[in-house]
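ok trying this again, last paste got cut off
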Amino acid sequence: MFNNLSDRLNDTFDRLRGKGKLTEADITSAMRDIRMALLEADVNFKVVKDFVAATKERCLTAEVLESLTPAQNVVRIVLDQLIELLGSTESKLVLSSRIPNVIMLVGLQGSGKTTAAVKLAYLLKKQGKSPLLAACDVYRPAAADQLATLGGEIGVPVFRGDGQHPVEIAQGAIREAVDHMRDVVIVDTAGRLQIDEQMMQEAVDIKRAVKPDQVLMVVDAMTGQDIVNVVSTFAERTDFDGVIISKLDGDARGGGALSVRAVTGKPIKFVSMGEKPDSLEVFSPDRMAKRILGMGDVVGIIEKAQEVADAQKLEDAERMLRDGLTMNDLLDQMRMLKKMGGMKSLIGMLPGGQRMLNQMGGNFDESMLDKIEAMIQSMTAKERLKPSIINGQRRARIARGSGTTPTDVNNLMKQWGEMNKMMGKMRAMTQQAQGGKKGKKGKKGKKMRMPGMPGMGAMPGFGGGSHFAGMGGGSGNADMDMLRAMEQQMKGKKF
């Protein structure tokens, strides 16, 4: 969503880096560019004015102008100001000790409240909660049916209360939760217009009747300047506690999302990055700011990998580091990639990754992963375990069986070879870090462990042997070096 804004800001930073020393005129020119970039992204003009004024004041200090790396200091200041604009610190969902906790969602028509309710239920269920959804939208045709269908997909029950008033439905849902030991009730209210006094009053009545622990406003990220009036009206009438920004994966300019915190003073608690139930993420201001500035979100990649990792994958990672990569390992990596949101999602979280995607037209052919999976599944069990036995005749057979060409199979084999070379380098690095290959009396030293993220030993990227390895658990600098190496190998190569 912030692709154009990211490109504009990075172009400004690139011009500053080209200067050995910055003058006041350079800073003024850069601030003008940043102002235009934010306005074009549809950020509220008052928010832009305050942001640029505060940033310029800090950039004009002697600490910046007289430093040896003034451009880097400007980037740091812009990052700090952007984090402050977005909320400074992560604001987690606060639930009380009462049973059940009640979370009420409000927002305009079409803002995505129903899907946000389901995504929130899915997230809470993953955290060990037992949520119940309350279908209080009695006006939109089939709204309750939609909620019931989506709730059924994630295994969360829905209280409908067909024919009842929304206030009665909300109250009935709480009784249902008590009777069936459900510890969280998520109330999906009807969408309303800003000027719809009757519907706004209904939201006030539901809040008064069920006394929710948290009132969350769902805001469409594609809402532009008008977001100021929208959130101000809801803040006045419902006094919500936080914001869920939906549709953040869209292609709109996204400036409204940057304005919410500054306009309302209310924290952004969650952002929705896709259509699937698992696409709701806890909002982190510093990580979002870094992604906007093209610095990537390495922590986010690690967290995604940890979610799909288990004890078996830890053992597999150690075996891969010790014995090398098999095609079965590679197949597991492909499937893990899909669980983590696919290559496009992960590349966008790399430092400079979003800019690289933009240069490719914003698209990445995910069918590459399907092609690799088809080739591996066309191999025999012996070939998967020992790919080195795959000769020309076997490659031709694999190509026929997978609907690909021998060239595709050759590329896959080349990737496998490059990945194992990387594994060898990692093995040597690990042994060196542990003080040598062997301990006393010729015995092996400490148990070898991947210096990074379990289960992500390596994975092909653009056909250039790119790798995810050494991430998490170890040195942050090593993580970044591996990611940068991956980014360099990605450029300009395809399967």
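PB: full thing came through this time. The domain at 3-86 is CATH 1.20.120.140 (Four Helix Bundle (Hemerythrin (Met), subunit A)).
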